[in-house]
Amino acid sequence: MPEYKAPIRDVKFVMQELLECEAHYQHLGYQDASLDMVDAIIGEAAKLTEEVVAPLNQIGDQQGCTWKDGVVTTPDGFKEAYAQYVEGGWPTLSQSEEFGGQGLPHSLNISIAELFSSANHSFAMYPGLSHGALATIEAHGTDAQKQQFMPKLVDGKWTGTMCLTEPHCGTDLGMLRTKAELQADGTYSLSGTKIFISAGEHDLSDNIVHIVIARIPGSPEGNKGISLFIVPKFNVNEDGTISDRNGVNCGSIEHKMGINGNATCVINFDGATGHLIGEPNRGLKCMFTFMNAARIGVANEGVAAAEASFQGALAYAKDRLQMRSISGVKNPNGPADPIIVHPDVRRMLLTQKSIAEGGRALVSYLAQLVDIGHAEKDEAVKADAETKLALLTPIAKAFLSELGFESTSHGVQVFGGHGFIKEWGMEQLMRDTKISCLYEGTTGIQALDLLARKIIGTQGEVLKPFSKDVTVFCQQNIDNPAMAEFIKPIMAYAKEWHEITVLIGGKAMKNPDEIGGASVDYLMYAGYVTLAFFWAKMAKVAQDKLAAGTTETAFYEAKIKTAQFYMQRMLPRAKGHAACIANGVDSMMALDSEDFVF
């Protein structure tokens, strides 16, 4: 199993040098988030992930979770590690001080979450899902509900889930059958079955608080009739203490491709007591509070997977001897050269590195936009941040999860046949990471959200704030010869992005299927261009540091060289997506469904 080392230097580069987190935090009123505090938190997170959480990764995969009579037991060591996680105060990091949190920025928490996900994806999911439940209750719950549920969720003694999917419907939530009937005391009785519920049952916490969508009898059909409920595993008294067992049971756990250390559950609600969140039939709107937060979290998983796979592949490539370099012997004292000298291995390693480091910059930027949404006093600035989040969240979720999975495939490939063997741990990373392309909305669903709802739905208005940032950066650096190799491609691709948007809009007026046919290619195109923008910004920071006379020459030179690789070898992939969009949807829809034969 690869030995995980938290990429502390690069995390600090992104937070402190690229995104200037200290000024960002001070402006928003996060006075406690000094650079010393940030450094200390990252350092402690690195120790915990490297020494406690990462060693459980392979154990979790091998043992998996076990289910017996509705009780789920997590793999050896998970319970003790989670207790240490809670004792260290990690669940409280970015939560409201009113409910026992530390009140630190979301962007700091997202950087810490990456380390846990790289170290052990399955383990990181247990506390990770609580954030969505907390965000929903805090945004839409009553004062009584907040006092009842939030303190224990904040301190990690309780965990949370999101219960959306049902056996007969996945993304089409309007087809749900779980019903919620009003009771005399104002609570609701919920009955129905949910599937694919991550961390739906386990032995790590004292209670599990489910956020559940259901339909109240008599509500409108489809999405307009969805309501949202808090349904705890154990009922909770008004003072926040645990009462009797609720009608919530785990019917089974799924036997999966990966993330075996996390329990993916079938949850049955048999007359379970639920508490309405928000107004009846407004659950879909409330649900997006945790869905957007969860999608950024999944984007972060893609970054984490790319980092973990890169670390394993890099160590192996430096050590493994195989063939001689085609440009001459590089290891004259050995029987062969290390495989890292071969161009194709370099291609795979640099692909992983450019995805991990570029993705880290994008996700951290999104998390800063979330900070602004929480704490900015200027409503115009806040609205600008919300618009950028609306555009970039589906791009980051789908693009980075797809490229994270690609990175794990490269990790297996670098190892060759050994990559296919379980003991090396590379194939586990690949199996664990595929889920990130699926849950919280598949790549296709994110693409439709981006193109149909966000782009076409606003007639392109959602593009303007981020496009302005790109334009301003390019104009500021267009006369800098050292930046020409980055600025010129970005300007050309940004122009083409606009042209593609107009092209699809025109075609969709004649044939709405053009939106569905173009959507994934459009999202991937947008992803490559967006990451190019962040790589250009990182290259500029590195150039400035080198010009100022830094002692870390190798670090900053590597950043520039990786940026050059991205521009020359990754960004051109967007051209293929542009060509597919231009070719239209006709070939996709030419066959009638009954003509698909084998």
UniProtKB/TrEMBL annotation:
InterPro entries: Acyl-CoA_dh-like_C_dom, Acyl-CoA_Oxase/DH_mid-dom, Acyl-CoA_Oxase/DH_mid-dom_sf, AcylCo_DH-like_C, AcylCo_DH/oxidase_C, AcylCoA_DH/ox_N, AcylCoA_DH/ox_N_sf, AcylCoA_DH/oxidase_NM_dom_sf. This is 3-methylmercaptopropionyl-CoA dehydrogenase. Its cofactor is FAD. The keyword Transcription does not apply. Residues 467-592 form the Acetyl-CoA dehydrogenase-like C-terminal domain. Residues 162-270 form the Acyl-CoA oxidase/dehydrogenase middle domain. It comes from the Bacteria. It catalyses: 3-(methylsulfanyl)propanoyl-CoA + oxidized [electron-transfer flavoprotein] + H(+) = 3-(methylsulfanyl)acryloyl-CoA + reduced [electron-transfer flavoprotein]. The lineage of its organism: Bacteria, Pseudomonadati, Pseudomonadota, Gammaproteobacteria, Alteromonadales. SUPFAM superfamilies: Acyl-CoA dehydrogenase C-terminal domain-like (SSF47203), Acyl-CoA dehydrogenase NM domain-like (SSF56645). It holds the Pfam family Acyl-CoA_dh_N. PANTHER family: ACYL-COA DEHYDROGENASE, BROAD-SPECIFICITY LINEAR ACYL-COA DEHYDROGENASE FADE5. Belongs to the acyl-CoA dehydrogenase family.
